[in-house]
Design goal:
two-stranded parallel ribbon; mainly alpha; two-stranded antiparallel ribbon; 6 strands; binds aspartic acid; binds glutamic acid
């Protein structure tokens, strides 16, 4: 229908009338397509974060050790053989084994904790020699797990570059999302079998690359340029992401603790399947045409009007025009910021890595009505704070804007990184108080509260800065670069995480604190020059 309309439009046709507002839009303020995208993404993130919440502990306490925890957080009562995991021998060679001298402290603390047991959670102590064996294996597996976790969570941010390119050029966003969602669902089910662990990770990395960038751009497709509802739509979308990230742990983490790891992974697959079915059933009706479809329609219209060559020449002229000096300075400014963001993400992403290990090994979670809260629920704390704090900060910035005191985007990012660093002071203090035992759940939760404030100051602000400051014709590329900083950040997160097993805990958290603060100060140093080149966009 839109194709026919475009084809018939004469050259100097007036802009098409705005899409009629449906009863649904009048009532809810947004087109129904937005809610289809929000719920599809909610289920996709449910599956992604549900699986990710189990990943580190699964590797360290189950998959890569021979004396295993068959149930998350419960006694080491199973036997396994990492050699049966296809590809492990190869990956293990790549990773190498850590020098045992580095692991001394980790082994001693872990062995002592195992001997003591955990009466509150009805876990009996283990004989000293067995405890030592378990500790050696777990400490090694923790380091390997940290690096692998870093590569996995990194690579999921590298493939979106490819996924975006394929959608723009060949398949269109709609089809690419379906292909990506299906590959992810298969990946989650494959993950439920331990031998195919690496195949599952590969499928998830590829599937996510196809799915993630293209579901987000479709939110934008629903709104005409200049429609003021677009920003608000992205906030609703971000809340959807975090609702998925919030509820998943109660399902996947609980299943892993009650029935076994594989049920947790399979539940993630069921979630992704829900999302996919919803998208397939409702998407066709309510979503806007994607960019490729629109471009093809425009080409067909131009061809019909005999303007093909003319249009092609105009496009080439625009594409080969060199960037102006001003455009170059914006590009370099964004590159500089993205490079600094690598450190932000490397510290931030410790949440699912070393902080999850802390939540598992060094935290006493409450027992509610006889039910011991599993450590994986910790992963729900950050998304919970995201959707509770977002309205507060939106309100604060609006108020600051009214009195002309709203910080620039760059200043906000600097503040975000500094707050992220400072949040780890809580953990330095916690590590000193808790020592080798188990401490209150308030330590990691309060750290996460502050860390989330830091995230709100940097992550969504950075996304919007990219779209504002980038020369329009390379905005997707610059967005790809933004994701690239998450890629490097996550990989670095894995390597930094190795120090968790080697250093005293308070020193490790001290390092995270310094990295966050120093990066914030470096971003701050960019504020003035960036303000000059970015003007109002800064
Ligand atoms: N947590 C957000 C998501 O899953 C964004 C993370 C990032 O940009 O690295 O969509
Ligand atoms: N806060 C992350 C993202 O913004 C989700 C998470 O780490 O659980 O949406």
């Amino acid at each position: 229908m839109s194709t026919a309309a475009a084809a018939d439009a004469p050259d100097d046709a007036p802009a098409p009338p705005p899409v009629p507002v449906t009863a649904f839009e009048r009532r809810f303020g947004h087109p129904p397509g937005l809610f289809i995208l929000v719920f599809t993404e909610l289920w996709e993130r449910f599956s992604y974060y549900g699986m990710r919440g189990l990943l580190k502990l699964y590797m360290a306490n189950y998959l890569f050790v021979t004396i295993r925890q068959t149930l998350q957080g419960k006694a080491y009562d199973g036997h396994g053989d990492p050699a049966l995991v296809k590809g492990w021998a190869f990956i293990h060679r790549l990773l190498g084994d850590p020098d045992m001298a580095h692991l001394k402290e980790c082994i001693e603390t872990k062995a002592a904790a195992l001997v003591k047991g955990d009466p509150e959670h009805k876990i009996a102590g283990v004989a000293a020699d067995v405890a030592h064996d378990i500790a050696v294996q777990t400490c090694q597996a923790n380091e390997h797990g940290s690096v692998l976790y870093g590569w996995y969570t990194g690579l999921v941010y590298l493939t979106p570059l490819l996924g975006g390119y394929i959608a723009d050029k060949y398949l269109g966003q709609r089809k690419t999302v379906v292909v990506g969602g299906a590959i992810m669902a298969i990946g989650h089910f494959v993950m439920a079998f331990e031998n195919s662990f690496f195949l599952a990770l590969a499928l998830l990395i590829i599937g996510n690359g196809a799915f993630k960038p293209n579901i987000s751009t479709q939110v934008g497709n629903l709104y005409a340029p200049g429609d003021h509802r677009r920003d608000r739509a992205f906030s609703i979308f971000y809340v959807g992401i975090n609702l998925g990230a919030f509820i998943c742990n109660f399902v996947c983490g609980t299943l892993a603790a009650a029935w076994g790891w594989h049920y947790g992974f399979a539940a993630a697959g069921v979630g992704m399947t829900f999302g996919l079915v919803l998208y397939l059933v409702a998407g066709n009706r309510y979503l806007a045409d994607d960019e490729l479809t629109k471009r093809k329609a425009r080409q067909a219209a131009d061809e019909k009007a005999g303007k093909r060559l003319e249009a092609a020449h105009a496009a080439v002229r625009e594409e080969s025009r060199p960037f102006t000096k001003e455009e170059w300075s914006r590009i370099w400014a964004l590159c500089g910021l993205c490079a600094l963001n690598v450190v932000f993400w490397a510290v931030y992403e410790q949440q699912g890595n070393t902080m999850e290990t802390w939540a598992d090994e060094s935290t006493t979670w409450p027992v509610i009505f006889g039910y011991a809260i599993p450590a994986t629920w910790f992963q729900s704390v950050n998304p919970f704070f995201i959707f509770t704090l977002t309205p507060l900060f939106t309100w604060l910035w609006k108020r600051q804007e009214r009195v002309g005191k709203e910080p620039t985007s760059v200043a906000k990012m600097a503040i975000g990184s500094i707050i992220l660093g400072l949040s780890f002071i809580v953990m330095i203090w916690g590590a000193m108080v808790v020592g080798g035992g188990k401490g209150s759940w308030l330590w990691p939760v309060s750290c996460t509260l502050l860390l989330t404030v830091g995230e709100l100051y940097l992550s969504p602000i950075g996304l919007s800065l990219v779209t504002k400051a980038s020369p329009p014709r390379i905005v997707s590329l610059m967005m790809g670069m933004w994701f690239l900083s998450s890629f490097f950040g996550n990989v670095l997160c894995g390597y930094i995480g190795k120090l968790y097993t080697r250093w005293p805990k308070w020193e490790f958290f001290g390092l995270l604190c310094v990295l966050g603060v120093v990066t914030g100060l470096a971003i701050w140093a960019f504020n003035k020059p960036l303000k000059k080149t970015l003007g109002a966009a800064a």
